[in-house]
Amino acid sequence: MTAATVTSPARPATPAGAPSSARRRRPRGTSRLTPGRVALYGVLVVLLAVFVLPLLFALSGSFKPRADIFGEPLRLIPSSVTLENYTNLLSSQPFWSWFAMSVGVATVATVVSVFVCALAGFGFAKYRFRGKRVLFSVMFSSLAVPFAVILVPLFVLLVKTGLGTPWFALVVPWVAPAFGIFMMQQYIVQSVPDEILEAARIDGCSEFRTFLSVVLPLLRPSLGALAVWSFLQSYNSFLWPLVIVSDVNHYTLPLGLNILFSSENRAIDLVLPGAVLASVPMIIVFLLLRKQLLEGLSAGAVKG
């Protein structure tokens, strides 16, 4: 008894001159290089050079002797590496005092700002109360008011009330930024369903307990994005510390570096190492919160 032979059905013949399916299909992950894409890559390369080259120049110049910083031809790789600029900066200027002031103020301002903005955004997003629309409109409209407009009234108010101490006054402008409140309100509307809040209330949680235990864990991406933004705003602030701080030992890094740059001999050899050291906290904050930052920035694009 012979076994039956199973034959596969014959494939239809491909007409002569017709392109095969293998040729028509393009492997996944590959894209056609069009003139528009080439132009886009060119623009991105130019922007990358604009942002990266000054940083490389500052890093390179911080290790050069003063006479070689602006020497010709301009070289990114120092011909002779020296740490004299760093030692002169740390020995002749209260740099660590400026550094501690900037990092401490920025950290306190960021923690307070993130918590206050999240709480205010939660109130605007999930509660109904009289005057809500008017209050939200006033808050949102404050985005159009430049900080220079309220600088003098804010300074007079703090001085008259005896609250002009640097550690308090430097934090005040960043406690409840309108951008942060609006950002948190939008994210809470999209990401926190009312059913979860109702379930927490049924379990006996108070409103504040619901906010701490239920809402805040759901806001991690937006909290990270807001924390990075708040830290950079406070850390890089120049105009407000220039008005409110008078003691050199209480200067922030932008003020301290400005003094060195504005001096009679323009101490570029001290400004460059100071700028390099000043960038370290911002890089650390970005590396620690980069995941939350990217998720928070892309949340509005992927959620309906």
UniProtKB/TrEMBL annotation:
Classification via Gene3D superfamilies: MetI-like
Superkingdom: Bacteria
Main location: membrane
Keywords: Cell membrane, Membrane, Transmembrane, Transmembrane helix, Transport
Domain ABC transmembrane type-1: 99-289
Biased composition (Low complexity): 7-21
GO cellular component: plasma membrane
Record's protein name: Carbohydrate ABC transporter membrane protein 2, CUT1 family (TC 3.A.1.1.-)
